[in-house]
Amino acid sequence: MPQMDRYKNRKVYIEFNTEENFNKLPYEERFTIVFVTNGSVNLKLNDYPIKVVAPSVLCLSKEDRIQVIEKNNSAAQSFCFHPDFFNTAYFSEETGYMSNSLKIETGLSLFNKENINTGVYYVTEKAYPKIYEWFFIMGTEVHAQSDSLWVCRIKKYLIQILGLVEELNKSGEQSPVDLVLEYIHTNYSDKISLEDLTRCAHLNRVSLNKMFKEVTSYTAMGYLLTYRLKLSESLLTHTDMSLNEIARATGFEYDTYFIKQFTAKRGMTPTEFRKSSREFVYYYQ
Fold first, then answer.
1. In this structure, what DSSP letter does residue 3 have?
2. The pTM is what?
3. Nearest to 227 by CA among 199, 197, 205, 206
């Protein structure tokens, strides 16, 4: 069932299930993320046999077909959202949702079942606590609606989960650069120094930056800044979080520094970017 937003008199088409049993998946007209925290589940997904072993994430689109074969001491939670959940940057009580052409890009590849992709993504030991925390906060916000920005916070944590899982599953065997990328993608919201990254890679700063440039075209700290700004763009576009909240969420200690870096790299202020990204055609419901 959709959630009623008690602050804005609207329906929000999301659901959170604290004990997912896999029997009703996928949820109608939804993208679904299942976070398996314990045990394993043998499934048939689109007639293809798969095994989901904790800790991992299963991403399902509305077109998927699933059949449970066997569950082995499994525990999981799920969050599902309508495809238009990210396309509702504005809402008013007079006109309802103002539909637009905005499309969230972060993590949507996870739901694509082309080629041999099964939709199952392993969660590393380092990433597990973060994803667990973000899922917990999303579930809490769905049920508590702690203030008028509860939907924005859910979008924020959903973007973070999708982005992290997507980045974790881009490569196989981990090189020193992969180790640092995982560290950045997991901890970007915290204070990170070059020394933190060199310790993670077991390299000195010269060797790390040389290898990083070969893989990403950036130095290690340059990539960190670029990744933080990329995530800030999603939050500016799809939430009404303040600049200070976005700065803190993406690892900038001060909003003034965030504004300075964003303006220098993007050629416009965060506020100007937010306005330009929300130019859309209104459809009254």
1. E
2. 0.74
3. 197
- Kind and range of the H or E element at 41? strand 31-45
Q: What is the pLDDT of residue 115?
A: 52
Nearest partner of 191 among 129, 136, 257, 125, judged by Cα = 257
Q: Backbone dihedral region of 38: left (phi > 0), alpha (psi from -120 to 50 degrees) or beta?
A: beta
Domain boundaries, the chain: 1-169, 171-285
What letter represents residue 73's amino acid?
N
Domain 1-169 is in which class? mainly beta
Whether the pLDDT of residue 126 is over 50: the answer is yes
List 10's β-bridge partners, or say none. 5
Do residues 26 and 32 touch, judged by C-beta distance below 8 A?
A: yes
Please tell me the CATH code under which domain 171-285 is placed.
Answer: 1.10.10.60
Phi, psi torsion values for 70, nearest 5 degrees: -160, 140
Query: What is the tens place of the pLDDT at every residue in 70-118?
Result: 998 999 999 998 877 876 555 444 544 444 454 566 777 788 766 556 7
